[in-house]
Amino acid sequence: MSNQFKKEYIVVAQNASGRNMNVPLYRFIGEKPGPKVYIQSSIHGAEVQGNVVIYHLIQRLKQMPICGEVILVPNCNPVGTNIKAGEYTLGRFDPVNGTNWNRGYFYDESLIQAFAQSVQDDESIPQIKQRFRQQIKDILAEKLEESWGIGLAQRLNLKLQQLAFDADFVLDLHNGPVSTRHIYVPEYAQSSASLFNIPHVILIPNKFAGALDEATFCPWWTLQTLLSDKRHKPIEFGVEAFTLEMGSQEVISFTDGEYDANSILSYLNAKGCLVKSDVYPQTMRRVATYLKNYKVLYTQQGGMVEYLAKPGELIKQGQPLAKLLNVDELDTPNATEMILAQCDLIPILHFPSASILSGTQLYKCFTHYFEL
Amino acid sequence: MSNQFKKEYIVVAQNASGRNMNVPLYRFIGEKPGPKVYIQSSIHGAEVQGNVVIYHLIQRLKQMPICGEVILVPNCNPVGTNIKAGEYTLGRFDPVNGTNWNRGYFYDESLIQAFAQSVQDDESIPQIKQRFRQQIKDILAEKLEESWGIGLAQRLNLKLQQLAFDADFVLDLHNGPVSTRHIYVPEYAQSSASLFNIPHVILIPNKFAGALDEATFCPWWTLQTLLSDKRHKPIEFGVEAFTLEMGSQEVISFTDGEYDANSILSYLNAKGCLVKSDVYPQTMRRVATYLKNYKVLYTQQGGMVEYLAKPGELIKQGQPLAKLLNVDELDTPNATEMILAQCDLIPILHFPSASILSGTQLYKCFTHYFEL
Amino acid sequence: MSNQFKKEYIVVAQNASGRNMNVPLYRFIGEKPGPKVYIQSSIHGAEVQGNVVIYHLIQRLKQMPICGEVILVPNCNPVGTNIKAGEYTLGRFDPVNGTNWNRGYFYDESLIQAFAQSVQDDESIPQIKQRFRQQIKDILAEKLEESWGIGLAQRLNLKLQQLAFDADFVLDLHNGPVSTRHIYVPEYAQSSASLFNIPHVILIPNKFAGALDEATFCPWWTLQTLLSDKRHKPIEFGVEAFTLEMGSQEVISFTDGEYDANSILSYLNAKGCLVKSDVYPQTMRRVATYLKNYKVLYTQQGGMVEYLAKPGELIKQGQPLAKLLNVDELDTPNATEMILAQCDLIPILHFPSASILSGTQLYKCFTHYFEL
Amino acid sequence: MSNQFKKEYIVVAQNASGRNMNVPLYRFIGEKPGPKVYIQSSIHGAEVQGNVVIYHLIQRLKQMPICGEVILVPNCNPVGTNIKAGEYTLGRFDPVNGTNWNRGYFYDESLIQAFAQSVQDDESIPQIKQRFRQQIKDILAEKLEESWGIGLAQRLNLKLQQLAFDADFVLDLHNGPVSTRHIYVPEYAQSSASLFNIPHVILIPNKFAGALDEATFCPWWTLQTLLSDKRHKPIEFGVEAFTLEMGSQEVISFTDGEYDANSILSYLNAKGCLVKSDVYPQTMRRVATYLKNYKVLYTQQGGMVEYLAKPGELIKQGQPLAKLLNVDELDTPNATEMILAQCDLIPILHFPSASILSGTQLYKCFTHYFEL
Questions:
Q1: Residues of D in contact with A75 (CB under 8 A)
Q2: Model pTM?
Q3: C272 in the Ramachandran plot: left (φ > 0), alpha (ψ -120 to 50) or beta?
């Protein structure tokens, strides 16, 4: 017994040479029915490790029978991947207008409220899911046909969202600047956090801020909350979406990619996507924090900085995070300055360059974290 | 009788060399009391014509007695002005993270509602103004002191907002890409649109979208609406704020600058900021549209484009806006393609480069416009 | 009677998505034998008007019988065309390392000297041409196969040079920043300057500085000089190469493109590439200067600049070229500064942005020019 | 007994805000006479570790008596340091025109030949040195006063060269992309290579290619060669210049900086710049190669790459250097490709991004290396 495999290309843009820019789509269809899974990587062009993870997933899925369907779209942003600025990849935003490539997905709260109104008391969960999916997909199609057109990032995002909104489980593979593994998990799906082999978990509220995971789970979470209220009993659609940050941008590692592919398979297995698989999550320490306690430390000064605290380390209040050099003051006591932790924290990522202006995101840190 | 003049420098950032980056502030204080005026230019680094306008304003104000105070901050964004990418200035957004330099101003609707609650029925307009101003300024100061720091663009914005929120009349001088003169006017201040010599007027609702003009007028408009309701009579604070788009970015013209300085002086004169001045607005055709009818035309295709419709021209439905070349099809009928107007419109600005990807903002157009 | 037409694609690079990047090649082959012509455009990505010229040439050549062969490669640099930095195209150099896209062509003087030695006294001109061409083409092929690889710009250049070195007449279509029409003409081919409808001519010596025109004509000029000496009589290979600057970058115009297509056809006609064509050069004033007298004016200061002298205008010594604004000095006499012409000159192009640092190429100017 | 200390600022440019951009200069003058030393860092803006080295040198020189004079100019390129493109520093070249910041120094071979002619047989070495220095410095001053102006990078370079050409020992502190420590040493000064604690040495010929070290040693080496020939005995001026590559760009380390400061002091001590110092070079393995054997490996393909060979490792022929992923082929055997060493080599540095186009400098490698 084995999966059916298809490879397609989706056109997402056209470049200045007048050429279509497309992205590969790898699709596995199991013999047995089951959930739909959608996994994409590199919506931010410099965050390339997810492509390696998808490479390993494809090798594994060739030999591992699945239930339902798994769609994998590596390197999903062909514009972002190919914009170099100096030796690095300027992949986080459209170089023309600064638009973050991960902020153009569709979400409209009022529409969900209207849909909730439209649900009959006797409508079954599968019926509701099917009808809601169709409605959102109709709107996405309509937006893509808007006669005045839509922006480049938005078109890319909506094209991908068409695939993602069809799925039950959505994984968006990212990287931080210089970063340790972490994952964004919607609060209602906290129990799923332990199905991945990822030590740092950010629990996020049901608030749309533009990313694909939110564009996926916010509608379902909102709808199930409204319907649970209406029917006076808990309704669950079983849809989950996560942003996985697989380590640092601008580097790839095949070994790490295998680890993360395994982590994803253990999640998929727990969710019933695999047929008789023995891939289970590792026993490991997992710490979590709420989004409001995931703090950005901005610099007050400009200068050159040595990052003393490494991502993933436990840092106590008062311990050094970074040491700053001011080249104008090399002969005075102001030549160097220590930046200290204001409270106990775990640095999750730091800025990838030693040269900083004031107001730079130096570190992002877990504060008030707890074990899962 | 003449004005008092002061020149200061405000530190807004620190660069990677560890140096303070400051901006000049020119302040004129009249012998007579009167309103406060705040004018800044070049928050977007490539939009430099406002600096020329301020140059002309300074020459004029040296000889023209004012009532109250006029503060002028040209070139208010020293980071944006100095980031070159190729021969042009990458001045619309922070090159590190894509943050638009004009979107980090502070606004909090709930705070205004709370303040409205706090207003006693017998509190006078000047008292309310003074107290509201102080409260916002206290919050700005507090945010600037945030112990985890704030982002570069936000710090710059809040520093400038401290000056702007103190003023009664705020003018933010911008340029479009390739553009004709136009102005953003809050709907409640529509009558002031005709005090400037600007032929194209966009009427914007009381909705904060991040810019300085909104950060200035939204709080006052919201507050006066709430208090008018509460007191059952119209309350007016007389505060107005506008974004003036003075033509195209990346070019300056001293002649045009003089025209726009005159336009601004005629507004200030009408608002009682000048002592016995004879500068009045020109008699001219002014057309306006509501923000929702100020439409962006995005390209469906990539290629090279000739901009046939010039900013400011009246274009009829079906007339050509642009002609696109596809270098892959030079031997076929698809070599060129006409992009036509979908309805009667006035193109206000167009993209400044012939090379475009799909999803590019080709034109921004007035539709459903009307004469003022 | 009509030409044969073929369309091909040449692979010149591979992008980070692992995709081949190719460029279209349009080839016309006449029924009669005759010279080979090679025309390319947009080696600098923002210089796109040449693509329009090639569009018009293709329309014309479909109906105009030729002798020999004409190869047209529009948009020959797919990397440069598609690198946006802000709204503009960062097309002059490789964004990774700053390498000018027009400086990686092959040239080796010693090799030409050795070849000249190898020429027998009785070898005919066609034989010499054929043998020399083959030798250079062999070296180009060898360099492209170098086992340690070669740089991106160099590979692109050598691929194009393989086509160009096969031709008798080579035209490289460029644009200046903000520019009037001008052409680079090798001194030995001065008489050909009047075959184009281009008013400004730069006469360049036989010195390789990296560009395609030089990489094409320097070997032939050097060889014919050496052989003329050896044989004590003038030898001519009849190979010519020119860089045509068709106006300003970042804009296209179909009307201007038609004018320049006509100008090129009048040159080709004079060179015997067309069958019974009646396209002749216009009678017009053409002025020339030697390369050493084509002067760059660099700024001593930074600031914002209004370009007062327009490209193509005659400017007398002492007349203003540009007016500079210093935003730090708006209240003092140093607010503005005039930059004056040091001698009689014709500005040919100027920098395309109002914002300049010290050491910016403000203008390039004809000095000591004369009528052709 | 202690050194005299002075701090100055040199203006090297003016920015678009019309402000002077200056760089700090730290000068130590010993009580005893002795050689002049000039050390600069960060001519390439992203190569910041040299600033830390200079910081440590200053701390040491405050307490360590010297003979002669030591001038230190950290962060010598205030434009390059402050041009961000995304999170990284676009510091290798002028973002306007692609000019490498380290290629605008002055060198003119014919001038040295003329000078050699002018030397009388009885002119003493100190006299010759003084007169040659003055002549070069006069030319530098003249070039800086050129009435048509000079380019930004060139002005910066000539200003620094004025300081460097006055010195006997010149150290230019750089970093590679991802790199191990290495040093460029002129062949005639090979014996000095072992005075630094740097394991990898590139021996470079007397050929000017634009960098500061060459601009410093080529004139002296050429002159002493010419005069040695003329006088039929070896002449030595004792001037040396080196480019030190201190590890990777975009990071700083205070610990590593201390190591390299010590390495530099051991060289200065050996050259008689320190009074009774006990800083000596470490006993360590040092390998060298000639510049022609310092090979660049360019990629044939585009894709994502894992760098398997670490800088400084010994790699045998046939061993893997890098593993490439092609996202379009994840389901085929072409998904990955190994890039193997063509010969025994030591990778010294590699490209800093996983995303590469074809023609990328993947590795720079020592081949045919030998122990010093």
A1: 327
A2: 0.97
A3: left
